[in-house]
Specification:
Length: about 280
């Protein structure tokens, strides 16, 4: 609507009501974005907080819109989830990630790539088979990939999520619980899920230096993860002080702007060379 357009770049966010003219054109545009190669894969490193070694990288999608420039995921991922387009988007991200993993191996880097799955992906019972076929095309094995799933996506339909996750785990994927602490998670489920990793949401990590409660939440999440035999990752590491504090608390890995912002794949490899040197 005209009123929304006045708000400038927020047009997309306002266009979520299904069936409206704007959402129809957004869906058309998203389809075209894939066809015209307008999506970009960015990678953000995750490091071992003791040694500083890069263990893996998270794949984060951006949309390089011909008019609007780089559109952040929060402006189109929720819409893609609502319309079901997320399945195509996830397939694209997985293919690009498999390709990036191949490139990394070619450069002699030993790392894993993490891909975000949405609720809709998780409810797709053919997902494991589709991923399997897709990876075979790139001669990449599941062991090189980690799949990140938010706790709210799991709790949407825990029974079905558990089934899908079990299959993915048997196939050899590492599995990670994303944004831990923000949804209501059931610890009973957490115990049963075949996951390897838990990511503490950045809201807690970014606040822990000034808020004692957040610091306590971070500390007890690290403890909980370790008691369940999980690797624990802190996201939102924005300062050297946060890195040091997390390392003291025994947190295994960290990800955040202090280490690096997400970068386009070629730049990520350059950065990695410099970081390791
Ligand atoms: P997420 O999975 O929790 O990803 C982490 C987000 O935190 C990323 O935002 C990343 O750029 C940002 N971040 C990392 N370190 C810091 C830091 O130190 N400080 C701050 N303030 N932020 C930091 P981004 O790339 O904008 O992605 C936002 C969300 O969009 C993601 O949150 C994820 O939920 C979704 N998303 C992004 N790419 C994909 C994708 O390929 N598939 C799906 N399903 N969702 C995606
Ligand atoms: Ca994530
Ligand atoms: Ca997260
Ligand atoms: Ca998040």
């Amino acid at each position: 609507s005209a009123k929304r357009r006045q708000c400038g770049s927020m047009t997309y966010e306002a266009s979520l009501d299904a069936g409206s003219q704007e959402s129809l054109s957004l869906l058309t545009e998203l389809r075209r974005a894939v066809e015209n190669n307008e999506l970009r894969l960015f990678l953000q490193p995750k490091v071992d907080l003791k040694s500083g070694a890069v263990i893996s990288a998270e794949a984060l999608v951006r949309w390089e819109h011909p008019q609007r420039g780089l559109v952040p995921p929060m402006e189109f991922i929720p819409f893609a989830e609502q319309t079901g387009f997320i399945r195509q988007l996830t397939a694209w991200v997985l293919a690009e990630s498999a390709h990036a993993l191949k490139l990394a191996q070619g450069h002699g880097f030993d790392l894993r790539i993490s891909v975000n799955l949405s609720t809709r992906d998780l409810l797709d019972q053919d997902l494991p088979t589709k991923i399997d076929q897709l990876l075979a095309g790139y001669s990449v094995t599941p062991q090189g990939l980690c799949l990140e799933i938010t706790e709210s996506a799991i709790m949407d339909d825990p029974q079905r999520a558990l089934q899908t996750l079990e299959r993915l785990s048997e196939m050899g994927f590492k599995l990670s619980i994303d944004d831990f602490g923000t949804g209501y998670s059931s610890l009973a489920y957490l115990k049963r899920l075949p996951v390897n990793e838990l990511k503490i949401d950045k809201s807690f990590v970014m606040a822990m230096e000034r808020d004692l409660d957040d610091a306590r939440i971070v500390r007890s999440t690290i403890e909980l993860a370790h008691n369940l035999g999980l690797t624990v990752v802190a996201e939102g590491v924005e300062t050297g002080k946060a890195w040091k504090l997390l390392a003291e608390l025994g947190c295994d890995e960290g990800q955040g702007y202090f280490i690096s912002r997400p970068m386009p794949t070629p730049r990520f490899f350059e950065w990695l060379q410099g970081w390791q040197a």
